[in-house]
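Dear support,

I submitted the protein below through the web form. The confirmation email said the job was done, but the results page showed an empty box. After a refresh the structure appeared. I'm attaching both so you can tell me whether what I see now is the final result or a partial one.
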Amino acid sequence: VRVRVPTFVMAASLLAVPLVDLAMRAGLASRFGFAITLVSVLVNAFCSAVAQSSLYGLAALFGDGATQALQSGQGVMGVVSVLLRVVSNVVLAGRPSTSMFAFCSCGSALLAGSVAAYARAVCDDSVAARLAAYERRRLSATATATAGALDQMLLPAEGRPAPSRWLSASEVWLESLSAFLVFVTCLACFPGLATSLTSPTLGSWFPLLMVAAYNCGDLFGKTLPARARLVSRRSLPVWVSAHLLFVPLFLLLLRAPAGRGGAS
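What the results page shows now:
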């Protein structure tokens, strides 16, 4: 339920943008169109978070290989979405509304297909057995986790002190901080800033090229660790610092064209 229902809702909400565009052309007030679009984005983000967290929890039952496959699949679909947008732009050139509707419809069809693939996967005997065993453990833990039992679970075992939160945090603080800084840098530039840039020669294709570059890099970064590990814990701060430097370097490279106040 936590995977199928949110994914179906995302498939439906993906059609909100082209449908709102058609409604506005038919006379819908722009403020209502903006409100509907905003709610659709909110619902889509919520459902995406629920489905994604549930899938990561499911992948944890099958080991690192399943988590890596989930990461790689996300990267692949990012590239597929760019290819779909390119095809819709080329085939329906000069008809932006129709092109957007075709693109969103294909995206909805892919999401519906992914639900069907998920339903088939969880029906596999080995997968179903693991899920059933996990569900039994979860229900058993829920039934026995009374206040007293929970206190006993938190007591030191076999004479060893239970690890404190600070001790646990001290073991992973570098990786956690690095992940936080990487996300801050990415969200500061993509998708808002990257897709707002324009090119006098490439026109509307430039934002799409920016998204394509990001998604291809994302795919490469998610699939490479399964085959080769290029970053160690010692070198991680160096890579993160280089990543952070992109923002100030980008701002320094901005310049105002002659006779204009905006940035090029």
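Response: this is the final, complete result; the empty box was a page-load delay. The first helix runs from residue 4 to 13.
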